[in-house]
Write a structure and sequence with these properties.
By secondary structure, the chain is an all-alpha fold. It is built from five helices and no strands.
Length: about 90
């Protein structure tokens, strides 16, 4: 089933804001609010896959405590940069 853009963005946003740990709710929720609309199809698909990863792993990757899998490295870097920018 092919998902149209609007429902897909809403679904990804909801999954970003409703994680398992509050830190990832905030990090991914703000990222999704600010960036999802501008992402291309390939990056949206990668982001969708990223949302299936474990929150503890995601937090370690975004915070730099652990290295992400290579396929997510660029996206994790973008999310971490976005998070750092929002704090300042």
């Amino acid at each position: 089933m092919i998902e149209t853009t609007d429902p897909r963005l809403k679904r990804l946003s909801m999954r970003s804001w409703r994680r398992g740990i509050k830190e990832m709710d905030i990090i991914l929720g703000h990222y999704s609010d600010d960036r999802l609309v501008g992402l291309d199809e390939e990056t949206l698909t990668l982001y969708d896959a990223l949302l299936s990863e474990n929150d503890q792993d995601l937090y370690q990757w975004v915070s730099g405590q652990a290295s992400p899998p290579q396929r997510f490295a660029g996206l994790i870097s973008e999310i971490a940069d976005h998070t750092a920018t929002r704090r300042h």
